[in-house]
Amino acid sequence: MLKPYEENLQKIREEIYGIGEEIIYANKISLSALKENDLSMLKDVTLSIKNLSIKTNEIDNLIVKTLALYSPEAKDLREMVSYLKITNEMLRAGANSKIFVKTFRQSFTNDLDKHSILEYAIPLLKASNSAFEIAVSLLKETDDKAIEAGFRKVSVEESKTDDLYAIIGKNTLKLISKNIELSKDYFDVLSSLRRLEKTADRAASIANLILFARVGGEIEQAK
């Protein structure tokens, strides 16, 4: 039987993982919508930031309560502090996913050059989703080397999103120069895609926090 502290720690991990799964599910729907060029599918993204906020607050309260009651040792304290930061990163990732869906649906009109946008938007969303999914999976990983390898994989995917977004930015400016009256729609699309890059940043931060929790080292400054 697990001790009370260990029970709380296990519950905290599971609750954070559950939030991650909700966001991953929403992101997969978004990717399918872009691949099939069917934005009506985005209506199935029911991610609620209010509900995520309530859940993360409950986890934070449990973390604080556990810290107060059980006075964990240095390693355990490091892990609990990391989880306290991870809940915030999860909430920010969820907000990015939700805003992407809302803004992209509104701005991706038939007047735009959809092919030119989707050519790089789909790989961007795919890399962003991959980074986040790998990061969330590390919550259930117990092997230090596997966590370090996972962190490197997340970093690679996050770097891809930076490169892809830069390409999209340049292409969007070219499209605007050809059709200036659609500049607002193009900029809104670009703004929505920026949220995907930000989600990958959150994934990198989560992976770094998990690495810090289990292995130690330094917490890298999130973007």
Helix and strand layout, with pairings?
Elements: H1 4-35, H2 49-70, H3 74-107, H4 114-137, H5 144-178, H6 183-214
Helix pairs in contact: 1-2, 1-3, 1-4, 2-3, 3-6, 4-5, 4-6, 5-6
Give the biggest sheet. none
User: Could you say how many structural domains there are in total?
Assistant: 1
The CATH class designation is Mainly Alpha
Note poorly predicted spans. none
CATH architectural arrangement: Up-down Bundle
Helix amount: over 70%
GO biological process, one term: negative regulation of phosphate metabolic process
Family: Belongs to the PhoU family.
InterPro entries: PhoU (IPR028366), PhoU-like_sf (IPR038078), PhoU_dom (IPR026022)
Domain PhoU: 30-97, 129-209
Overview of this structure, please?
The protein has 223 residues and is mainly α. The chain has a single domain (4-214), classed as Up-down Bundle (Methane Monooxygenase Hydroxylase, Chain G, domain 1). 80% of the residues lie in helices and 0% in strands. It has six helices and no strands. The chain has helices at 4-35, 49-70, 74-107, 114-137, 144-178, 183-214. α1 (4-35) runs antiparallel to α2 (49-70). It is elongated, with a radius of gyration of 19 Å. The protein starts with a helix and ends in a 9-residue tail after the last helix. Residues 30-97, 129-209 form the PhoU domain. Belongs to the PhoU family.
Key phrases:
mainly alpha; 223 residues; 0% strand; Methane Monooxygenase Hydroxylase, Chain G, domain 1
